[in-house]
Amino acid sequence: MNVGFIGLGSMGGLMARNLLKAGFSVVVHNRTREKERPLVELGATSSETPASLGAEADIVITMVSDTKDVEQVLFGANGLATGLRPGSLVVDMSTISALETQRFAEKLLELEVGIIDAPVSGGTEGAKSAKLTIFVGGSKDDFNRALPVLERLGSTITHFGPIGSGQTAKAVNQIIIASTFLGVAEGIALAKSAGLDPNMAIDAISKGLASSWILENRGPRMIDGSYPLGFKLALHRKDLRIALEQAASLALNLPGAQLVATLEDSLMEDFGDQDMSSIYESVRPKEDS
Amino acid sequence: MNVGFIGLGSMGGLMARNLLKAGFSVVVHNRTREKERPLVELGATSSETPASLGAEADIVITMVSDTKDVEQVLFGANGLATGLRPGSLVVDMSTISALETQRFAEKLLELEVGIIDAPVSGGTEGAKSAKLTIFVGGSKDDFNRALPVLERLGSTITHFGPIGSGQTAKAVNQIIIASTFLGVAEGIALAKSAGLDPNMAIDAISKGLASSWILENRGPRMIDGSYPLGFKLALHRKDLRIALEQAASLALNLPGAQLVATLEDSLMEDFGDQDMSSIYESVRPKEDS
């Protein structure tokens, strides 16, 4: 099976590498073409455009930034839609709008091309170790076709239901982590401000009700004021916009996520490219430097 | 060793029971006297007032609702302070103000009575199974004297530093759970509102970045709209007031905790006596009934 891979950013590059390691024949394309080179050195072939890549592949993974980027890759000039053969399958692993995903699926259906949405959680650590959590929406048949590929990228793969439901699950995930990150940041800010040993506090608190992956793994970074990736603040802000747009379309008010969006906006300039644990900077005590 | 126990509420009653089971000689007192009876039936003796109890005990645990209640038990009419012998030790396991705790300690010092603060996390489940997380502040000697008793009540016991630091650690814990609860509630609200299976979402999400004790153990209660205790919303609101007062005294702004306090205020009348997972009611989608 020929697997196409479009979007070799900080996540996609690591994921394409895992497919090569697993023995798949992989053809890659990236808007900034020089990002293809490390993959080609590992055995991938490269392709000029999404259209030419589509003509060579049975399954094409797209891993790009936002809804408009997926639209461009699919339906733009030299887009996948002009190259894909009937019966081929698009696996969109980007985090984008669930509603727009449904619209893309309708347009691809006219070309007899399948699509599933399969956004991920787990950041660059999960991408590297092939232990991503993958949220899938689409038909059962398309899910089963993609599964041998997805299994080389993630360790928890859940088929939620029809097209778009993977994106909804991802939005739920991003909403939950938003306030969880803020709670951990505020707790650490209070500990530091009050002169409590914050590492001791994390150790004690991690045994009880307040325990979370974020407290144990990102709390120490907040204490150090150092935010290596991880998962970019700017990307979480983008995901939060998508999730909040979906909530708004359902007349649902999510004040915690709204608050985090506002706090992240204030950090974008200085910390947008750092890990989202930098949300700590928005509540950092003045005397803590 | 004679252990006194004052405050036989939903937490204290279970904790006193564990001390009896462990073979301690326990003398109990409660403002509403009839709550003493089940403990007496299990082998405790009862005492008329905090003062008379204090005269009989080497170590006295106080487990009452708020700062003013601890003050009343210690320094009110027939308070502990009038009965305690020099060399005895108060172990205040209530969640109260760290600052007031320091003031109480100074007054007890004049009577040659020791005090440590030892608030807990883990709710009635933790109290029952003697697996509470206990946050301790006070002198090392006093901590060591109390340890044989504390070890029968909790499984994670951390000595943070001087008097009041246990309360600060507890405040950190309550700040962290505030926004974590809200994040989980908002995620589940979005899942339900968008027609996603929320149990499937929790299962998938619990494997990744968003995993927390609250998501796994309280998410299902939010989905059911049923909030058995656990930990009362009203008590968390009280703890949050104490934590936010401490933050304000340090000129620290904690917008997530502030938001949760506001949301909890709106729920106090209908859900104050239910588990704090009822925070879900403040973001519940209109069509979810």
> Quick one: CATH class of the largest domain in chain A?
Alpha Beta
Number of strands of chain A: 9
Order of helices and strands of chain A: EHEHEHEHEHEEHEHEHHHHH
Largest sheet of chain A: 6 strands, parallel
How is the largest sheet of chain A built, in terms of strand order?
A: 3-2-1-4-5-6
Quaternary structure state of the chains depicted = homodimer
CATH superfamily of the largest domain in chain A: NAD(P)-binding Rossmann-like Domain
Taken as a percent bin, the fraction of beta residues of chain A is 5-15%
Kindly state the percentage of residues in helix of chain A: 40-55%
Which fold name corresponds to the CATH topology of the largest domain in chain A? Rossmann fold
CATH architectural name of the largest domain in chain A: 3-Layer(aba) Sandwich
Number of domains of chain A: 2
Q: What class, by secondary structure content of chain A?
A: alpha/beta
Mean pLDDT of chain A: 97
Helix count of chain A equals: 12
Précis, in short:
The structure is a homodimer. The first copy, chain A, is of the alpha/beta class and about 290 residues long.
Task: Please provide a written account of the structure.
The structure is a homodimer of 289-residue chains. The mean pLDDT of chain A is 97. The first copy, chain A, is elongated, with a radius of gyration of 20 Å. Chain A has a 6-stranded parallel β-sheet with strand order 3-2-1-4-5-6, with helices on both faces. Chain A has helices spanning 12-21, 37-41, 50-56, 67-75, 98-109, 123-128, 140-150, 165-193, 198-205, 213-224, 233-249, 255-271, and strands at residues 2-6, 25-29, 45-46, 59-62, 89-92, 114-117, 120-121, 132-137, 154-161. Chain A has 289 residues and is of the alpha/beta class. Chain A starts with a strand and ends in an 18-residue tail after the last helix. Chain A has 2 domains: 2-163, Rossmann fold; 168-288, N-(1-d-carboxylethyl)-l-norvaline Dehydrogenase, domain 2, CATH 1.10.1040.
